[in-house]
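Hi, here's the filled form for the chain we discussed.

Project: internal
Contact: R.S.
Residues: 288
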Amino acid sequence: PGTLSPRYLAGLRQIGINRLSLGVQSFDDRLLSLLGRIHSASEAVSTVRDVRQAGFGNLNLDLIYGLPFQTLGQWSETIMRALDLEPDHLSCYALSVEEHTPLHSQMTSGRLPWPDSDHIADMYDLARDRLAKTDFVHYEISNWGKITCRHNLTYWHNEPYLGFGAGAHSWLRGQRFYDILDPRQYIHAVESGCCPIAQKETISPSLEMAETAILGLRLVQEGIEQARFQARFGHDLGEVFGQELSRLEALKLIEKTPERIRLTQAALFIANQVFEQFLPDPAESLAI
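And the returned structure, exactly as it came back:
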């Protein structure tokens, strides 16, 4: 919001784009300012109107909770205002504080408080409760939809995908890679006939199995399909992760059926700690 125009939206539709995701983040102007966002709450609302008028029938809104000084009341108001706009999909993410960002600097200097894990858990629970009373399906830890997002499911199934454009990420044939970040440098590389890939990472079979298990567990209802895992890797889940699964089941953090393994409701609040159990080596990490 704040950067889209009706003309640009019309152009996106003309070239075949059929789904948009808007980084609304909050409907509280003070919190948007704190985040350094250039749009206001009213601009977010008007942008949604423009998106619909341009003919987009599939719209996601991104929201962030766990912001400094954000109250449960403010978070509840953001969810309700988002629902009033009748999106087709909602992504609700806890604030992630990355190094070398203004927010990180303000927190390390003490000018802003660090996120409180208990408060974040309360906010996540509030979102689950509010959205459970709607026709949105909670199909992934951070995602709710009247219709599930096909490209999201590609990520959670750890299937191949290609990204195009400056900074776009891809995963194909055992390699993860991303394109040159700077748009001008990306365009120059393409026009010069050079490969625009900036960096590649080869994924070992053991890490691919771990990531497939981790990402599959993010699917709240579907979880990891035993047959899908077996068909892909030629190994049973229990054969590869027997000890990890037994330990997590004893802690009541996963539930197992003959068809699938998924997180329990209690585990949704500490999912990253569950996921760490599957990594084959402490040196190997996954951006979750």
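Let me know if anything looks off before we file it.
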